[in-house]
Amino acid sequence: MIRKGFKMKLYKGQEKEYEKRHNQLWPEMKKMLNEHGGHNYSIFLDEETDVLYGYIEIEDEELWSKAADTEINRKWWDFMADIMETNPDNSPVSIDLHPVFHLD
After folding, report:
1. 2-97, which class in CATH?
2. Does residue 36 have an active-site annotation?
3. Angle at the Cα of 99 (from 23 to 60), degrees rounded to 5?
4. DSSP state of 66
5. N or C end: fewer C-beta atoms under 10 angstroms in the chain?
């Protein structure tokens, strides 16, 4: 299993909406994440900075990278674009974090 950490930026005042949308995550999106090897996925919010910190375990980098090109993923990006920083294709601006410590 490969552990990945990353950060994204939420627009000010969108904390509750972001949490609401994720609490109602579409079943098709959950299925796609699992089918592309994503497991044990968590997102945390730093309320002082509006920075989101994500953690996910993936099976394979190549398989995981294909998730971005799925129709349901693109639909999710479009759905989320109004409440967070995004790239021109509506993908979230996401910065990978360098792992420095892990304990099982």
Report:
1. alpha beta
2. no
3. 70
4. G
5. C
